[in-house]
Amino acid sequence: MTYKTRAAALHPAAKMHAEEFAAGKISRREFLTRTTAMGVSAVAAYGLIGLPTPAQAEAHAKVGGIVRCAMEVKGTKDPRLADWPQISNVYRGWLEYLIQYNSDGTFEGRLLESWEANEDATVYTLKVRPGVTWNNGDAFTADDVVRNFARWTDGNVEGNAMASRFLGLVDEATKSLREGAVVKVDDMTVQLNLSTSDVAVVPNLADYPAAVVHASFVDGEDPSANPIGTGPYVPQEISVGQKAVLVRAPNHNWWGGTAPLDEIHYIDFGTDPSTMVNLAASDEIDANYETTGDFIEQMETLGWQRKEVVTAATLVVRMNSATSDLYKDKAVRQAIQLAVDPAVVLELGYNNLGTTAENHHSCPVHPEYAELPAQVINPANLKPALEAAGLGDAELEIISLDDGFEASTTAAVVAQLKDAGANVKHTVMPGSTFWNDWQKYPFSSTTWNHRPLAVQNMALAYTSTGSWNESGMANAEFDAAMTKALSLADADKRREVMATLQSILQDEGYIIQPYWRSLFAHVKEGFNVERHPSNEHHHYKWSLV
Amino acid sequence: MLTFIARRLGLMLLTAFVLTFVVFFLTNLPPNLEKLARSEGSVRMTDESVAAWIEQNGHGGSVFARYGQWLGVVPGWTRTDDKGVTRGRCIQPRQDPAEAARFCGILQGDWGFSTFFKKDVLPSLSEKLAATGWLMMWVMIVMVPTALVIGVVSGMREGSRTDRVLSTFSIASTATPEYVSGVILVALFASPVTGLSPMLAEWGWIDGRTLFQGAASPDRITFWSFTLPVLTIALYGIGYIARMTRASMTEVMTAQYIRTARLKGVSFGQVVVRHALRNALIAPFTVIMLQFPWLLNGVVIVETLFNYKGFGWTLVQAAGNNDINLLLGCSVVAVFVVLVTQLISDIGYVFLNPRIRLS
């Protein structure tokens, strides 16, 4: 699907990565994420390491058929306001993205044919894919790209999820697109001139609120009211809370060829997963959006195929030195962190449905992940460390949600700290009250979603100015290294800084970050439906066997 | 008779007026408006954005004025933003603001726009009411005859073994709320992993994986999918109506004219059918009519449990999403159903009992 017209445009770092891959220094997945984020197409990337591009499913997929997928059907709304991936999965039928994040960790140009970043990630050149048309017959051009950037950067719209992601393109005074920030070079080329380095432009363009809409779209409108898009499907029916039906767009020549399925039905089963199992058992659905906890086993007794994807989604059990005096001493934090064995937490708290992590919130699926020496778990040191700090009898209260893996994981952490001799209490709260003060609790657990780059979560959570800093961590060295990392478009150079960031974060001891969650879904035999780390549904990849 | 009906209708309007104002007031409390703003705008909006959203979407100002807009006695709000785009309560998307009506409330026949369903309240509500109507019809068809037969049979001979067995059954069934019996029924009959279904499937007695379906849909009403929801609601009502019928029946059976009939040699069956039944059915009739409003309550639980998209489910979604117009619509419907069934039951009395006069 993706091709590169100018071979000379390969990013200089791509070849270097290829050598690293050959030397076994990085995995195939890391190699792909890194190089494609720099604008190298997936085909070229696979070519660099001497592998054939995986055959695209649609190339020989059977055309025709319907897939019925169990998923909450929420009301569709202006894509930039979309706050749940479920909303986007419906409008993905007819609205497409400039860039797509694939489940193998690569970035793929969809409405863009290619893109290039300069050395310090301040100028991006976007090449529009030729031959793309809207389903009303209009051609897709650079004007459409510029217009959508103006929509995304409009900070005056309440709830615009895209506005905060392109701060380098925004005029601070007017809170809208800065003059000269997005320039149409010619009909097929757009140049972004950022005021600061930003490595997250590509992942942001691939995120679910970044769907590209037509010139006739009225801001704030429901996109299904007048479904003009570039994608292969159009909505036939959207009944909120009940079902959504996507059918082939009539008289539309989709640039990607023929999407295999005739129709995609989303069936809303409410919020109780056991209803989803019942629907599966009574043959009302062919696939589901997500399977969690005990339901994984139940779906497998029905004979459905398990679809698993490793993600950087995680649970962080963190101390807060800004709101509690107990955790001001670094030695105490380190002792607490090292008293918890991640493998045990993964088993007891998450049924081994993931992989262990290393207390630094950077995952091997991230392109800039740096491998650090393994930590030595030492529960015996906890009691002496607490006593040395005069906290021998102090009660440590750990707060978590009252249900689900959040509660069981936190319970596993509490149990291990108790075994190590600390006086620990586990307090649970319902979601309605827990989230009111989640950043302020002295010691509590927080779920973190998957983001394609490690620096995205780290900048939010662990810099002293990070808007989601929940630990009170303020380390000048860390802040400086983060500023540097955020200016390095080249993921490999960023990795050197990453090693510093990760070891500071580990050393500060604020977080117990025991595992990476795998996400699951189930599909009935006879259907090809892909599981995506960010819950995206790429309908054109789905088919009947 | 006519004045009686007119008075009842007046009472209905007054009740609807008061109830909708109470609902309007509660749904317009600041925390509820914030919830609405977050679900309509974005869950991750800042507090300033939420306040601005509330102001810019016609939820600012006095609650009475906004209630007046819903009634249609105050002109609908309009607002022109910085970009010169005018939006308003009465302005349809893509409509020229100059052509829009000034008033658009319930008096003009406009029930407003449902923020949850993303369409007008009236068509959404009527569709859901029809779905619930089907469910209620089947509940009534199962519940009323079963309950009356049980009640009459156990009330015929008070204290007999049949009476004790049937009474135990009715007390047990009416003491079990829907949310308990529904879960038990689903676990027993509709789960592919527990209860009877895996056993039956293993023995090859059933083709699918479950005996009954644990979810129902208004699109396809089948014995397989409707049995459990209907049974869940009906079980509760059966016990209750049967107890009422039994009480009424035992009272009638001890009456003088029944003894007279027996003494003059009429057979027991004749006495029950000819003399006792009609008099014994007056009390159950009221109870059955009272079941209609009660059913509206029962369907909330059952429709949520079985994921049946009817009126009860709509009410839950409307409340959960603070969909103001939809909740108001639901209130009007509820008032209407309660008072109309009461009216029917009062009129029905006259025909069952000649001693009662309405005016």
Query: What is the CATH C-level name of the largest domain in chain A?
Result: Alpha Beta
**Largest interface summary:** A-B, 38 and 36 residues
Which architecture of the largest domain in chain A would the CATH scheme give at its second level?
Roll
Q: What count of helical segments of chain A does DSSP give?
A: 16
Low-confidence stretches of chain A: 1-9
Percentage of residues assigned to helices of chain A? 25-40%
- Radius of gyration of chain B, in angstroms, nearest whole number: 26 Å
Show the helix and strand layout.
The complex is a heterodimer of chains A (545) and B (359).
Chain A: H1 12-22, H2 28-37, H3 42-48, E1 66-70, H4 85-91, E2 99-101, E3 107-109, E4 112-117, E5 123-128, H5 142-152, E6 170-171, E7 176-177, E8 182-186, E9 189-193, H6 201-206, E10 233-239, E11 243-248, E12 263-267, H7 273-281, E13 287-288, H8 295-301, E14 305-319, H9 330-338, H10 342-350, E15 354-356, H11 382-388, E16 395-401, H12 404-419, E17 423-429, H13 431-434, E18 443-448, H14 454-462, H15 476-485, H16 491-508, E19 511-512, E20 515-523, E21 527-528, E22 543-544
Parallel strand pairs in A: 1-12, 1-13, 16-17
Antiparallel strand pairs in A: 2-3, 4-5, 5-9, 6-7, 8-9, 10-11, 11-12, 14-18, 14-19, 14-20, 15-20, 21-22
Chain B: H1 2-27, H2 30-40, H3 47-56, H4 63-71, E1 78-80, E2 86-88, E3 113-114, E4 119-120, H5 121-156, H6 161-175, H7 178-189, H8 196-203, H9 223-253, H10 256-263, H11 268-280, H12 282-305, H13 311-320, H14 324-352
Antiparallel strand pairs in B: 1-2, 3-4
Question: In words, what does this structure look like?
Answer:
The complex is a heterodimer of chains A (545) and B (359). With 545 residues, chain A is of the alpha+beta class. Chain A folds into four domains: 1-54, no CATH class; 97-210, Dipeptide-binding Protein, Domain 1 (Dipeptide-binding Protein, domain 1); 223-304 and 524-544, Periplasmic binding protein-like II (D-Maltodextrin-Binding Protein, domain 2, 3-Layer(aba) Sandwich); 310-518, Roll (Dipeptide-binding Protein, domain 3). Chain A has helices spanning 12-22, 28-37, 42-48, 85-91, 142-152, 201-206, 273-281, 295-301, 330-338, 342-350, 382-388, 404-419, 431-434, 454-462, 476-485, 491-508; strands at residues 66-70, 99-101, 107-109, 112-117, 123-128, 170-171, 176-177, 182-186, 189-193, 233-239, 243-248, 263-267, 287-288, 305-319, 354-356, 395-401, 423-429, 443-448, 511-512, 515-523, 527-528, 543-544. A five-stranded mixed sheet of chain A has the order 10-11-12-1-13, covered by helices on one side. In chain A, strands 14, 15, 18, 19 and 20 form a five-stranded antiparallel sheet that branches. In chain A, strands 4-5-9-8 form a four-stranded antiparallel sheet, covered by helices on one side. The longest helix of chain A is centred in the C-terminal third of the chain and has 18 residues, at 491-508. Chain B has 14 helices and four strands. The longest helix of chain B is centred in the middle third of the chain and has 36 residues, at 121-156. The A-B interface holds A 75-77, 81-84, 156, 158-161, 218-219, 221-222, 225, 238-242, 269-270, 272, 274-275, 277-284, 298, 301-302 and B 37, 40-45, 49-50, 52-53, 56, 82, 85, 93-94, 115-118, 186, 190-193, 208-210, 213-215, 304, 307, 309, 313, 317.
